Amino acid sequence: MAGADVAGGLGVTLGVVILAHEALHRVAQVARHWARAGVAVVVHVDARADPAQVARLQAALGRQSRVLFAPSSRSDWGSWGLVAATQAATSLMLGRFAEVRHVALTSGACLPVRPVAELQNFLRAHPDTDFIESVDIAQTPWVRDGLEQERFTLHFPFCWRRQRGRFDAAVALQRRLGIRRGIPQGLTPHLGSQWWCLTRATLHAILTDPERPGFDAYFRGVWLPDESYFQTLARRHARRIRSQSLCHAPFDPDGQPQVFYDDHADDLAASGGFWARKVWPGADGLYARFLGPGCDSPARRPLRRPAVRQGARRSPYLVLQGVEALFPDLRRWLAASGHCAAHGRLFHPDRAIFAGDARGAAGALSDHAAIRDAAPEAFLDALIRNTRGETQCFLFEPGDQIAIADHIRRDPAARVVAVTGASAIAPSLSGVQVDRPAAARGLAGERALLAHWMAPDRAARVQIWRLGEVLRRPGPVLRAISDHLGAMPPPPDAVAAAPVIRGLRALRDSGLDLDLAGDWDGPVEHADVGAGDVAAL
Amino acid sequence: MGSYRLRLRRKSLLWRARRKAAELAPVANRTGAIRPGDVLLFATIRNEAARLPFFLDYYRKLGVDHFLIVDNDSDDGSGGLLQGQADVSLWRTGASYRASRYGVDWLNHLRRRHGHGHWVLGVDADELLVYPHCETRPIRALTDWLDSRGQRAFGAILLDMYPKGPVEDATCAPGQNPIEAAPWFDSGNYRMQRDPELGNMWIQGGLRSRAFFADDPYAAPALNKIPLVRWDRSQAYVSSTHTLLPRGLNRAGLGAGGPSGALLHGKFLSGVGARVRDEAARGEHYRAGAEYRAYAAALGQSLWSPWSEQYLNWRQLEWLGLMSQGGWA
Question: Bridge-partner residues for A130, per DSSP?
Fold first, then answer.
């Protein structure tokens, strides 16, 4: 049969039903396009459409012999009226166009995006196939928002769009009372896209089914019958179903139909669908391209543009406490790696100390303490966001703006590497005397900071060493840092352990509690290997 | 209780607007040409003859159908220029800008009178709106989409644009795009929080915070704007286009996860010095020109920094996290 049709040339083999609500000038344009290509068209206009627009539509299509109007009726979104309108329109189609072999259901916001001849040839090659997305809900979760099975077994007296509260209450009440409607014998509920293309045989069987009055009565009470009536009944009558829509009608992440504009032209041409929904009525460019001259030549198929999506995940960053006291060249080492920015104390009370001692940073962040402290979290988040692709490292020492520590601890992107006890010796590193008041202040600050790092709502990765461990083996703490950064240049030298230990002893003997420094005063020969151990890294 | 207080406040704003309406003298009232569904732009201007040609052109290209403009005593030919435009309705007033709460009362009145049922845009002559897909989609595409999602307001961040050299060297000829003369902006130094009373996002930061308010960051100007709203005669802007009542509009406008835009603020160009002196002397601007006095001190220098970003397009702003296309793909 297909062969005969192709040989015979231009028989009217395809019928298109258009369910129109608004923007009727576009409906006229699309109907003319179908009709010009030898397609039979039946237009159903919603009873609430603007009368002036309806009159213009009828005038525009009046002389087209292949275009008919179905009697107008109410066809609200998701209502039985939409199914009734489809039944009326398709009956008219089958009755008046005897040659039609396939009928496609479209909306007034649909636009053919491939040459009509391609669709006709495709359908001639599949004369017995019904193209209707039709999913068995008992087996596959199809919709996201529940009511998969229940839309067939509950009553829905209220409109979901306009009476949401009552709708939900009615559902809840029926669930509690265990109310269930029976599904008629001979039906297996199926769901799918409204935009199908059925064979004459299947459509005829559905419309003339002896059980139809009972089925119709049942589906009047089903929620969103336009997604299930034909989808379920096609399963009862079809010989061969391909559960796929010929219409490109994607949904956005909110579950709403995506709207197409002029800048989607290439996407639509590459979509593979024969027609697309839903097109913004103002998209002059799309209508011109797909309905205008030249639209009948097979489209070039550009490569699909990959969707640009912002990763919600933030890049990790490194917070270093007490490390620079032990490795004076720390920042030079980090910077030399080439894959991170090595800042100083970003939260120093006087000003933000950016890498290279710059007065600003990416995104035009200011080093001004007042601006930073007006919203320290926004400051840190902005820095991380502004430098996507480059890991940020910064020093954070006792005395810095501690308010940010809670934010860092709760941030899964933060990596904290801390050496406790280090602030006891930091002031003495220049080789001068031990500064007992400074050490006491530093240790008190560390204690406060430690409480922040270790609080139970921690999402950051926090690694803590005690000074004693690092003095004995400096390797692991550097390795912990480089684990977050990748390949690193040769490690920096640690300070000589002996003077540090001498200083610590002096502090301890003066009565300062050095528990934060851990076990540092082992047998002298152990303490003295500190610096040399770095080579083993 | 709180909502009743806000209701009273809204009523008093509307009442004020009606009272201030007496200050407006119609110069060219072409509002009869407004058709249902038209997108309307409302603005108060003063001596903007140099900016207006590009401004009108820019918004016409986006698809604005009618401009409703209050001329606050211009003496540079702005009035004549506007009067000659077929799609502009013009009112003139010599009354105090400050006493009209920086034009808000005048425009609230005009919006109530002519904006009901329309999407209305509220921008200054030095503000250019950028929204997702604005190079390829007219503003009606956006408002239709917002309608389909039941969203009644569209928010934007105010981005201060500036030249690389000294501000007074950056000249912008009439009809020229001010963003060509001042293409730089601060891309990532903003902070925001939600205002508990009116529900709006409060955004501060950017150039003015960095260059003029470093020592008093909380005094820096607010950068949150809700420039595009589906108008109902019961609505009123509270201050500038920052906040509205009823307050649900503020929440919908910014920070609700939907699409948002940016207003490119082409203020810092040659001539701003004279304007600043004039405003500071008249004390007619926000906080009696304190902001303007702060600028005057700093305008001799370049505002540019090595971390400044050069403007390309809306996708750049989205990538930087300054605006969002939300679910509008």
Answer: A241
Question: Is A321 a domain residue?
Answer: yes
Mean pLDDT on A190-203: 93
- Interchain pair A363, B327: CB under 8 A: no
Spell out a b/e string for B290-317, using b for 16 or more CB atoms within 10 Å of the CB, else e.
ebbbbbbeebeebbbbebbbebeebeeb
Cβ-contact A288, B161 below 8 angstroms? no
Cβ within 8 Å, pair A360-B193:
no
A-proximal residues of B, 288-307, CB under 8 Å: 305-307
* Amino acid of residue A243: S
Q: Name every residue whose Cβ is closer than 8 Å to that of residue B33 and which is 6 or more positions away in sequence.
A: B66, B87
| CA nearest neighbour of A281 among A107, A125, A85 | A107
d(CA B310, CA B321): 15
- Give mean pLDDT, residues B154-167: 93
Q: CA-nearest residue of chain B to A373?
A: B217
Q: Is residue A258 located within the same domain as residue A385?
A: no
Are A283 and A431 found together in one domain? no
Are residue A435 and residue A531 in the same domain, yes or no?
yes
| Closest CA relative to residue B142, chosen from B314, B264, B266, B311 | B314
Q: Is residue A125 part of a domain?
A: yes
The number of folded domains in chain A is 2
| Residue B159, SS3 per DSSP | strand
ipTM above 0.95, yes or no: no
pLDDT of A179 > 90? The answer is no
- Do the Cβ atoms of B313 and B128 come closer than 8 Å? no
pLDDT digits (tens, 9 = 90+) for B265-296: 999 988 887 787 777 777 666 665 666 667 76
Total residues belonging to chain B: 329
pLDDT at B293: 67
Which carries the bigger pLDDT value, residue B304 or residue B2? B304
Would you tell me how many other CB atoms lie within 10 Å of the CB of residue A347? 26
Contacts of B307 in chain A (CB under 8 A): 360-365
Task: Check whether residue A287 and residue A326 sit in a common domain.
Answer: no
Chain A nearest-CA distance from B220, in A, is 10
In-domain check, residue A144: no
Same domain (yes/no): A404, A486? yes
Where residue A531 falls among pLDDT bands split at 50, 70, 90? very low
Take residue B196 and report the two structure tokens written for it: 């508990």
A304 located within any domain = no
Question: What's the pLDDT tens digit per position in A312-340?
Answer: 457 889 999 999 988 989 999 999 988 88
Q: From A32, A111, A110, select the one nearest A289 (Cα to Cα).
A: A111
Tokens for A345, please give them.
Answer: 């104390």
Residues B282-289: contacts with CB under 8 Å, at least 24 apart: B283/B98, B284/B96, B284/B97, B284/B98, B285/B97, B285/B98, B285/B102, B286/B102, B286/B221, B288/B98
Enclosing domain of residue A398: 317-536
Same domain, A378 and A441: yes
